[in-house]
Amino acid sequence: MAAPNPMVGSMEGSLLNPAPPISRKTFCIAGILATVFGLEELSQSARRIACLWLLHPRLQTQECMGPLAAACLDHWNHHEQSQEIGLVAVTFDQRNHGTREVDPLSNEAWRSGNKQHAQDMFSIYHGTSADTSLLLTYLSSYLFPCSNREIVSNLVLGVSLGGHAAWHCLFHDPRVSAAIVVIGCPDYISLMSDRARLSKLPSWTKSSPPGVHFLGSPDFPAELLKVSARMTQQQCCLGSPIALYGR
Q: What's the pTM?
């Protein structure tokens, strides 16, 4: 079952329902189809541009972020500051999703029969972070080939799988100045350990105490533990220091 997007409600009168009309244009950048919203609405006087990157949930596609893009841009374009600093939004399909889907099972969880869920999910949203940085590098040359405008700020908003990726973007690309994380966690090891418990995986339940052998098991291999532990320590900056994971 697709992860719901809580940013898009069905309630009458919702900020996103119906979505205000907004222009969109698709660019093929580094082999990735990126949809850019709001180019036609940019003020002629706006030479500095902020870019809002919208990252979708697991089992969904970039299309579900369209109403949010429209609402954000419509709101900003009614501000006086939009005459000086323009705003565009960008969406793209995360790896193995939408137009980039290769293996549907790899997007599923343990409960849905994907034995490599931990490896698949981490590598997908790690890849999404890398893709965001790659697109960010080249976007301006596609949008403004005459160099008449400059992208001066990059913001990321991610939901669920996109929320996890948003943490990566914020902590691993200094060009990203802010992130809004909706249902996302910077501590992948804790996240998946709890999911293993809830999923009642044998690698969790068949030990005393439960879960003592989960990390480093085939459900969460040692190599995945190494990379996720390293990135967790880099990302978890709130609260007490992170304990070292490993054996």
A: 0.88
